[in-house]
Amino acid sequence: MPRILAPLLSAATYARWLHLLIGLVFAGVVLLVFPGTEGRSLGGLLALAVPLDVALLVAAALVPAMRRAEGVQARLLLMPAREQDIAAEPARGFADRRRTAAWLIGRVALGTAVGFPSVLVPAAAVGLLVRPEPDLFGLRLPAREGFTWYPLLAPVLMFALGWLVVWAGRLQLAMAVRLLGPSPAERLAAAELRAERLLERNRLARELHDSIGHALTVTVIQAGAAREVGDPAFVAKALEVIEETGRQAMEDLERTLVLLRETRDPAGTGGAFEGADGADGPATERPGIGQLPALFDTARSAGSPVEAWIGVPAAKLPGVLSREGYRIVQEGVTNALKYAPGEPITVRIAVREGQLELRCTNALASSAVRATPRRGGKGLRGIRERATLLGGEAAAGPEAGQWVLAVRMPLRLGA
After folding, report:
1. CB-side exposure of 307: number of CA atoms within 13 Å?
2. Which residues contact 245 (CB under 8 A, 6 or more apart)?
3. E strands of 173-257, at which residues?
4. Distance separating alpha carbons of residues 118 and 103, to the nearest angstrom
5. Per-residue model confidence as pLDDT tens digits over 90-102
6. Beta-carbon count within 10 A of 365 CB
7. How many CB atoms within 10 Å of residue 198?
8. How confident is the model over 302-317, as a mean pLDDT?
9. What's this model's pTM, rounded to 2 decimal places?
10. Using CA atoms, how far apart are residues 253 and 298, in angstroms rounded to an integer?
11. Is 349 helix (H, G, I), strand (E, B) or coil?
């Protein structure tokens, strides 16, 4: 019983009923203006009114703003489970206008079909309750004497009307989702926007992981070494390195926060985040291959000898390759400091056959050094993602007693 009565008591049912009656109002106004009802049969009225209604509705659908107005009204009165199922954007092409015209015609037709019972059924129910000779939709019933069950028909009629409104409202909502919902082009654009935002979030996550992770690794190693050695000069040097590394981490964090705040679309229409390529100034300037010597100096200060050979001028590399190359080498050095502290690190950067080759190797941790085994976590996954997005490839793993990180990326993007 609650399942039968609940839809009849729902606010959504009456909001949708109002939406249906608006269609009846439109048809009624047009009918009264032209052709009028005096002296005309039902067939004659329909023959004149229906083509006129359709013509007016099609003309209204040609106005781009009509689709947005109908979408907003449908969201408010039809109460969809998800508002985004019904678009609230102007028509952008002929396909949108065609769907809007179909929606308007279907809305008025369904509203008219429900509107007449909405007027006639309550009047008939009242007649069954109070009139001596009730009139049921034009059919005059016998006098009430001897037919005392007439009043029992009134709630049955109202119950039937209620469920007619419930099903008509659900049908109206289904029509709105089908005809006013996002077009295939809009769905594709929304999917592309979601993918772009996801890629941007992943890129920012990699930036934070690489920069902050490197800074924390160096800080922990320096602090631990200073505590173990206890030499005042070494402690002072370690504190200097920790201070410089912390300052660089703060700059990286500020740069990432700027990327989060700045967008390509100042109007706030949902554009993707603006990357470093679209911003100027030190706040958004990301380090490149040219900043690797400072990175190597930090690793040396942490106690790991670094032998580096960079066979390509940073100025001759595309900006994105220079920046991504820096992050890849930074992650390789960070992993070496984390998993094999104190072991020598070798970095080779060269250009061969139109490919930028990055190779970072370090000896595996000796038995005297306690190091956590590598498990191919977020850092290596981020390196592979960076290389793949630029059309390259990355591989990492033990090789001849060393841990080797090898990355190849084409100099010409998209090649």
Report:
1. 6
2. 214, 215, 218, 219, 222, 298
3. none
4. 22
5. 998 898 999 999 9
6. 19
7. 11
8. 86
9. 0.53
10. 18
11. strand
